[in-house]
Amino acid sequence: MSFISWQYALFLPAMVLLYWQLPWRGRIFLLLAASYFFYGMWDARFLALLLTTTVVDFFGALAIAGQRQSTAKITGIGLLPLAWLSGCSLLYSSHASIEKWILVAAAVFPLVYAALYQWLWRLPVARQRRAFLILSLGSNLVALGFFKYFNFFAASLEAWLARLGWNAGWTLPHVILPIGISFYTFQSISYAVDVYRGIARPSHDFFTFAAFVSFFPQLVSGPIERRNDLLPQLEKPAQFEIADVHRGLRLILMGLFKKIFVADNCALLANYAFDPKTHLNGPWALLGVLAFAFQIYGDFSGYTDIARGSARLLGIHLNRNFNFPYFAASPSDFWRRWHITLSFWFRDYVYIPLGGNREGRVKTFRNLWITMLLAGLWHGANWTFVMWGGYYAALLTLYHATPGLRRLAEPEKNPRGRLMAGAVLMFAFTLIGWAIFRCKNLEQLAGWFAAFGNWDPTVDWIKPFYWWLFHVVPLLLLQLASWKSRDEVEFAHFPWPWRGLIYTLLVLLAASSVAPDVEFIYFQF
Amino acid sequence: MLALLAGAELIVRVFYQSSMSGRFEYGYSPTAGFVENADGTVNLVHIGGRHFWPQTFAMPRPPGMFRVMVIGNSVPRGPSLATSYPAQIGDQLRALGIQAESFNLAIGGNGSLRSEIILRQALNYQPSLVILHVDNADEYEDEREYARAQAFKSWHPKNWLMKSLFLRRLYEAKTEEVFWKWVPAEVRVLADVNDYGNKTLAGENPATRREWADRVRRYTAESVALARARGVPVLLLTGAREHDDGHGGFYLDDRGLDTLVQPLLGDGVYFLSMKDILQKTDFVPLYSDGTHLHPPGQAIIADAVVKKLLAEKIISPGR
Q1: Which of A290-294, A481-485, B107-111, B113-117 is the least confident region?
Q2: Which of A321, A390, B21, B274 could be joined to A223 by an S-S link, Cβ 3.0–4.6 Å?
Q3: Which among A232, A211, A189 is positioned nearest to A57, based on CA atoms?
Q4: End-to-end CA distance of chain B
């Protein structure tokens, strides 16, 4: 179910109205049912995977905190994935098949997991916590690695072997990438690690924890929430505040504007410029990457706004994920403004555990490169994403190593003129990064760079440039209008007639561009 | 905000409703594009899904006037109004001393159903002759747009936003004044690439081709019946495409259309084949893309039509 579909336009109000009629416990069950329904609209079978990782992390975190659960309880709850898959195979046998081995694995899972769980309790106490953490992390990473990267690494290995003259002749299985897996596994990993570190306590209620993992506004594309931010809000009943409704609706409106008016219209130009059959020249290479920069920003930040707005209507506050990223003055500033919850996740669970910047310059750069390469790989199973991560590692290294640029990492220590120059430079660097990100392969990337040597106009680019301006200028004006409040959707400092006019214009601009569905980009991650 | 939107909707419904009728019927509106004026004239206009060349004619046909109306797809629509064969038919008839007028009601992408809908309205304007350009190249779009038009009329939640005339007009204004003018055809085509792919795949399926042939047969027969009922002669002009024969030469293909229309002939219904007309010429330079004709090609078709009308004694010089 897409956030910009008519189904969601009916689903959300119905959900919200029912939610506020129910007592706290009822709300948890409603949230859980709604979240599973929301996810199941894509492919109901993969709810079994979501259930499985939920079961492992729920019991794993309790064990990390030294709270042992009975085999009966673990087995009972562990049978939920099998029950679900069995129901799917009975009801949907003609629509989507379930392989027999998957049903067998689902049947065996609770027995194996319960046995492993009880075996780990026999380990020396000093090793138990770490063992359960490894089990929890391992199950999430194995699921993520298999569904997201199996085909990529197998195909890469096959190609490499072919270059050595060996035809592997494999028949690779078609592995479907479950949507949201990159997000909910990371959320679960942070939960287990925070419990291990002692900065969070485990949830004792399976259903509340399941609602935390599967909370529908942020399940598919984030923000990636921390246990201490989201779970407390679910563990106690939210109070209805009319201010939350206003804020939620504003967020949703802004998100729809960014997605429908900005992102989808910029996508027209970006898709043309980055289509392999397009004979690219300099103007279109530049216009294409400018269009993509605002397509991906409008798409992703628009999605986040709708997610936060939807949650706000339920009285739940989700973390901000974007903060004027194209005004960043340096790469480190950019990563404090772009996909904030992901970059902070990598900082807290990869960069800092590796040693961060505490062990000298060489190790700092090493840790930076590992973190950014993994962050690139997280975005997708393609070497261009890894290269994109490496590009930002190189930029961060360059800025760190260059005295004149290093200062830009702390914007508050710079005069405005210097910051503006830094922002312009950083935007140029960002565009190069987006070209790497958008190209399907290295050949296409090389072609993009080579296009700048050809300025012969083939297809008109001036009117498409006006098209781009037409859709980007309103967004930039809005950003300038909300700059004072340092919040991309906040215009509270404007008098109410002006706010009304702004909101009306946003509705009209979005309605003027209602077009065939263009999927959110970050769904593929 | 709600007050502003409601106010705008009220204004549009009070002052602009009549001018917006048919816009969102994707060419299936019976009357869209035909603007009947109080002075007794009819304007053909570009509106919504009906992209007529702008033309004007008198609503009652003037006495003694031989009025030709040509209905079809982008082939008779031509590269411009003046160079299209419908216009050139008018020029050639007038050159023969005949008091004649010829109107181009062809629209790119129109299949057999949309042509029938236009013909139904055109018959209200007393044509002396209807030329129906018969083709099967646009049946995919015709089916797709018909489904879209039917879906749009429904109260399905996905259509609720566009039930607002104000928002609908805004969407259309942006599409026609900004999107069509600022986004080049090459970019727009790519945005529809999935549909191009679907159309190509559909066209390669023999069962689909048979369905399209049945469609053309059915709606062309209905069109002929409508014209006969009004006593209006019909000239069925079947299309032809140019293909590479793989040996450095080209050939013309009517894709079965010449055979398809044979059962409809007789009793005021006449036939011309583009393939037969162009086969007698050096046709390769006449085509711009294997389907559409350059102005010289359009002139040859017009010439053939006029000769046919003379041969069938539908017209006589100096009449």
Answers
A1: A481-485
A2: A321
A3: A189
A4: 65
Residue B52 · residue B103 · CB < 8 Å? no
Across-strand partners of B134?
B238
Q: Are residues A271 and B191, on separate chains, in Cβ contact within 8 Å?
A: yes
CB-based contact B26:B148 (threshold 8 Å)? yes
Packed helices A71-78 and A80-91: angle between N→C axes, nearest 10 degrees: 20
**Residue B23 — pLDDT band, cuts 50, 70, 90?**
low
Q: Is A519 in CB contact (< 8 Å) with chain B? A: no
- Which pLDDT does position B191 carry in this prediction? 65
- Is B161's Cβ below 8 Å from some Cβ in A? yes
Which contacts qualify for A192-195: CB closer than 8 Å, 24 or more apart? A192/A57, A192/A60, A192/A61, A192/A64, A192/A133, A192/A136, A192/A137, A192/A140, A193/A133, A193/A137, A193/A349, A194/A226, A194/A227, A194/A228, A195/A61, A195/A64, A195/A65, A195/A227
Give the per-residue pLDDT at A340.
95
Please name the residue that has the structure tokens 């084949």. B273
Amino acid B308 reads K
Segment B75-134, tens digit of pLDDT = 999 999 999 999 999 999 999 999 999 999 999 888 899 999 999 999 999 999 999 999
Residue B37 parent element (H or E):
none
Note whether B15 contacts A: Cβ–Cβ < 8 A.
no
Asked if the Cβ–Cβ distance from A6 to B170 is below 8 Å, we say no
Residue numbers in A near B162 (CB within 8 A):
514
Catalytic member of A339, A379, A400, A471: A379
| Record: fold of B24-141+203-311 | Rossmann fold (3.40.50)
Eight-class DSSP state of B235: E
In A286-315, the residues whose Cβ lies within 8 Å of chain B are none
Distances A436 to A293, A387, A392, A430, A440 between C-alpha atoms, Å? 12, 7, 11, 10, 9
Q: CA–CA distance from B190 to each of A275, A350, B195 (Å)? A: 9, 41, 10
Please identify among residues 19-38 of chain B the ones whose CB lies closer than 8 Å to any CB of chain A. none
Average pLDDT, chain A: 88
- Annotated active-site residue A246? The verdict is no
Could you check whether the bond before residue A237 is cis, i.e. omega within 30 degrees of 0?
no
What confidence tens digit (pLDDT) does each residue in A397-410 have?
Answer: 999 888 878 777 67
Among chain A residues, CA nearest to B156: A6
ipTM: 0.71
